[in-house]
Amino acid sequence: MLETVEEARDALSSVGYLPGESTALVSFLAARLGKPVLVEGPAGVGKTELAKALARATGRKLVRLQCYEGLDESKALYEWNYRKQLLRIQTEGDAGWDAVQDDIFAEEFLLSRPLLQAIAETEPVVLLIDEIDKTDQEFEAMLLEVLSDFQISIPELGVVEAKSTPLVLLTSNNTRELTEALKRRCLYLWLDYPDLERELEIVRLHAPELGETVTRKLVEVVHMIRALDLKKPPSIAESIDWARALLLLGADDIDQSVLERTMSIIVKHRTDLDVVAERVGVKLSGEAFAAPRASTG
Ligand SMILES: Nc1ncnc2c1ncn2[C@@H]1O[C@H](COP(=O)(O)OP(=O)(O)OP(=O)(O)O)[C@@H](O)[C@H]1O
Ligand SMILES: [Mg+2]
């Protein structure tokens, strides 16, 4: 499946993900070395989608841990099903506390969360730990332990060892610097905006009905806008959205008027809109821009 770099590239392409050179290389290495991959890069460049695509390409199940501020072990590893335990205590209360306690800390009362699920699966999975930068360093340290030993220790039950080694992808939007310890254990992939030809292919893939000339023009405009000094440059996600919008509007060209009406699909900050308007000389004054103008004024 991912036996060579070329195979990795082809496997990803065949499931609708067009990888750049380093993406294919790192995917191949991750599969062969069994090392986690830390994927960093701006928003909307395909970090999350890469994990999904790897799952499709390898026929593995995707287990996803969506990170957020305050995420703790009970939501990432496991927790006890208190309600069920309580019910058991109520029905078996007269059996004596020791007996009941033995009983209620058994596997049937355990609620597995993504990390435990991923290592307990008999068939290897793709484990996506999405937006790891949203958690704190304490959580990162816990994660390191799981990722280096592929085992989770549950005091009441013992150590759960991995039945299979998952292919692990961690993504980060770089909102905080990750620890050196984590980086050291991972392969690193920096995903950036693609070059013009690859983005063209990606947009074609997601909006195949859009005419060739408009598609090319769209990608050229996006690249031109990306080169401006913007707070939030348009990503691949915005290119795709724009292509789909143009399809719905039946636009067969991107002229001044189309640009004016649809620019807010790819540029989403008031100040960025001003920069773009100045650069391309359009009046970005349609309804779509009324709301942000009012809210900042
Ligand atoms: N190489 C690619 N081939 C095909 N589609 C792609 C590729 N890269 C990105 N996309 C598409 O771009 C969109 C955005 O991708 P995704 O959600 O993975 O971005 P992200 O980097 O995780 O963004 P965020 O940081 O905001 O979570 C998706 O619809 C995805 O299918
Ligand atoms: Mg994402």
Features:
9 strands; binds adenosine-5'-triphosphate; 297 residues; 3 domains; two-stranded antiparallel ribbon; Rossmann fold; single chain; disordered C terminus; alpha/beta; five-stranded parallel β-sheet; binds magnesium ion; 15 helices
What is the fold's blueprint, element by element?
Layout: H1 5-14, H2 21-33, E1 37-40, H3 47-58, E2 62-66, H4 73-76, E3 78-80, H5 82-92, H6 97-104, E4 110-112, H7 114-120, E5 126-130, H8 137-149, E6 151-154, E7 158-161, E8 167-172, H9 180-185, E9 187-190, H10 196-206, H11 212-226, H12 236-249, H13 256-262, H14 270-280, H15 290-296
Parallel strand pairs: 1-8, 1-9, 2-5, 5-8
Antiparallel strand pairs: 3-4, 6-7
Helix pairs in contact: 1-2, 5-6, 10-11, 10-12
Magnesium ion (MG) binds near residues 47, 48, 130 and 171.
- CATH-assigned homologous superfamily of the largest domain: P-loop containing nucleotide triphosphate hydrolases
H/E topology pattern: HHEHEHEHHEHEHEEEHEHHHHHH
Low-confidence stretches: 285-297
User: What's the helical proportion of residues?
Assistant: 40-55%
